[in-house]
Amino acid sequence: MKSSTRSAKIGLALGSGASRGWSHIGVIKALLREGIEPDIVCGTSVGAMIGACYLAGNLTKLEEWVLDSTRTDVYKFFNIRLTRSGFVDSDRLCRFLYENIAGKELLIENLPKRYAAISTDLESGREVWSQEGGVADAVRASMALPGLFPAVRLGHRWLVDGGLVNPVPVTTCRALGAEIVIAVNLNSDVIGRNQKKAEPEPEPEPGPEKKKGMLHNLKQTTIEYSTALFPDNGKQDDAPGLFAAITNSINIVQDRITRSRLAGDPAEVVITPRLAHIGMLEFHRADVAIAEGERCVQSALDEIRKAIGKT
Question: Is 91 a catalytic residue?
Answer without folding.
Answer: no
